[in-house]
Amino acid sequence: MKILNLYCGIGGNRKLWGEDHEITAVEYKQEIADIYHDFFPNDKIVVADAHQYLLDHYKEFDFIWSSPPCPSHSRLNKTNGVGLTEKKYPEMSLYQEIIFLQNWFKGVYCVENVLSYYDPLIPPQNIEKHYWWANFLIASFKTGEDRGHNNRVNGLEKRKGFNLSEYNGIDKKKALRNCVEPELGKHILDCSLGLQRQQTLI
């Protein structure tokens, strides 16, 4: 497939996808894009606004994965005192992309985000404590391990499978915490391939 991997970060969701697909990854921060490129040199990496790139290039792909920024939606905004000092509007680009893909994209897609502090405006699938909007059924899945978000960097590196010891000038903990679990990323790609095969047969 031709895959578009939006808001790719350092590539947690991508890690176990292998090399059988033609993958374009979009990341806004150059230093993060450089790390992604080091781990996945065969992918095309684009440093750009992923939200705009989707609008401009969606017709070029068979499968689109999007993981828009999550902090403005997170339940943490209303728990443990986090986010109580500064109120922000939820970033509605999340729902813009869902509605756009639902109505205009002819291929297979999924949009990922955290569990929100409000009732989702569009019903998602709930897999591994994350919301997923997709045009295919994502089978239930358990990583069998805690995501380890409270671990130190070396613990997160081990959990996510990335060694960032050679990189400086980035928030390593944040980059690792932003990674979708690699096993879950592979599971969702595998689920999407089922719909892709059905469309091919039709």
* Total count of helical runs of at least 4 residues: 6
Percentage beta strand: 15-25%
Strand order of the largest sheet: 3-2-1-4-5-7-6
Distance between the termini: 17 Å
Category from helices, strands and their pairing: alpha/beta
What does this structure look like?
The chain is α/β, with parallel strands linked by helices and 202 residues long. β2 (22-27), α1 (30-39) and β3 form a beta-alpha-beta unit. The longest helix is centred in the last third of the chain and has 20 residues, at 182-201. It is built from 6 helices and 7 strands. The chain is globular and about 45 Å long. The chain has a single domain (2-201), classed as Rossmann fold (3-Layer(aba) Sandwich), CATH 3.40.50.
Descriptive labels:
202 residues, single chain, globular, seven-stranded mixed beta sheet, Rossmann fold, alpha/beta, 17% strand
